[in-house]
Amino acid sequence: MQAWHVHENGEPSEVMRLRDVAPPTPGEGQVLLRVRAANVNFPDALLCRGQYQVRPPLPFTPGVEVCGETPDGRRVIANPALPYGGFAEYAVADAAALLPAPGSLDDAEAAALHIGYQTGWFGLHRRAGLRAGETLLVHAAAGGVGSAAVQLGKAAGATVIGVVGGPGKAAVARELGCDVVIDRHGEDVVAAVKEATGGRGADVVYDPVGGEAYTQSAKAVAFEGRIVVVGFASGTIPSPALNHALVKNYAILGLHWGLYNTKDPELVRHCHEQLTELAARGAIRPLVSERVPLDGAAAAVQKVADGRTTGRIAVVMEGSA
Q1: Structure confidence by residue, pLDDT tens digits, 11-30
Q2: What are phi and psi of 205, to 5 degrees?
Q3: Could you write out the DSSP letters of every residue in 151-207?
């Protein structure tokens, strides 16, 4: 089979190499999946750079999210078990963690439903308790993680303000359903949020960016608001001023979605059922902005690493739906 291998850490376009290798052998409790589509995530870039919280032994195959086919023909969503990731014709996954791929989505969309949407659901509902009628502020609203949060926020009945970088991403955010779009390249984010909310601020802030975006979040959050810290795509981890949280009465909520796979896997399955139902009635649909063949995976991961994408890029295998 063909698989992308990372033999040393560095930029994805420099360290990913397409190789002909033997298919992996599943371990106990694992299953071999024929990959139908693999979604490109920012953690794939971090894995290549050696900067992710998990560091698989070299060489490894990146690709943390797939739609695949089991030996008995079931179409499933999975997080491959590294070092046998999804940018390959076959991957390995834990059998107990397989989720049915929604029939309402094609392979590329199904591959993109898992991590970003699970993170959004847990962040907005489990952690922040987003309610209908509240205002949700989403940073990087046109990206893979942000676009999922926008759709989930609208499905929950919230007013959604999206922050993006540039007019092209602003257009995508509007198409996704944002009620207000703020281009951080030319607008004062805090002032724009205050204007859009009559001076009150956002009830919930969804922040996968960190850095300056977090600073803006703390200034733009409402009284008794909730800031959900999802990641640090900016590369800068902020140091919150806790005295500010005390004076302004807001909560700072961390979210590491992957922990739920071990701490409460049944809740992950419940979330997937909710997402499947939302997808079936058209309330959410992953924005797959680009579909590339297997030999385009390294360039796709680099593009995500550089922040030059909207929605998701999917690596789609020949013959997939």
Answers
A1: 999 999 999 999 999 999 99
A2: -120, 130
A3: HHHHHTT-EEEEEESSHHHHHHHHHHT-SEEEETTTS-HHHHHHHHTTTS-EEEEEE
Structure token pair of residue 52: 């992710």
Whether the pLDDT of residue 155 is over 70: the answer is yes
**Alpha-carbon span 48 to 6, nearest angstrom:** 7
Give residue-wise pLDDT tens across range 252-277: 999 999 999 999 999 999 999 999 99
Picking from 3, 222, 206, the residue whose alpha carbon sits closest to that of residue 121 is 206
228 φψ region: left (φ > 0), alpha (ψ -120 to 50), beta (else): beta
Confidence check: pLDDT of 318 > 90: no
Instruction: State the alpha helices, DSSP H only, in the chain.
Output: 12-15, 42-49, 107-111, 115-121, 144-155, 167-176, 189-196, 212-220, 242-248, 260-263, 265-280, 297-305
Using DSSP, state whether 74 is helix, strand or coil.
coil
pTM: 0.93
Neighbours of 221 (CB within 10 A): 26
Largest CA distance in the chain: 61
